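Sharing in case it's useful to others searching the archive later.

Someone asked me privately for the predicted structure of TM2 domain-containing protein, so I'm posting the question and my answer publicly. Question first, with the sequence:
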Amino acid sequence: MVLKSKTTATILSFLLGGLGAHHFYLENKKRGLLYLAFFWTLIPAVVGFVEFILLVTQSEDDFNLKYNPGEFCEKYRKPHSMPVSRRGKTATTSELNLEEQLLQVH
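And my answer, the predicted structure tokens:
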């Protein structure tokens, strides 16, 4: 999977937004074809400029979450940690439940 760049998408939306180039880049092919089919009406140019402003104001994390979801999750995944019992060794779920029950009783 190729990572999408927010900078590249922003530049494409500014320069070629009326032709839908940024949508082709972001793999929104249907929307890109729609922009290409109606570019002569100048409506896609106006919408492309609005999308340029939205891309400029969008945070890098929001962009990655929307267009690079797999890589975004890998980058920010927290390491899995094993639960530790009060005795300092790795505990099973049943041991942790038993300890919680004992603590609630006392």
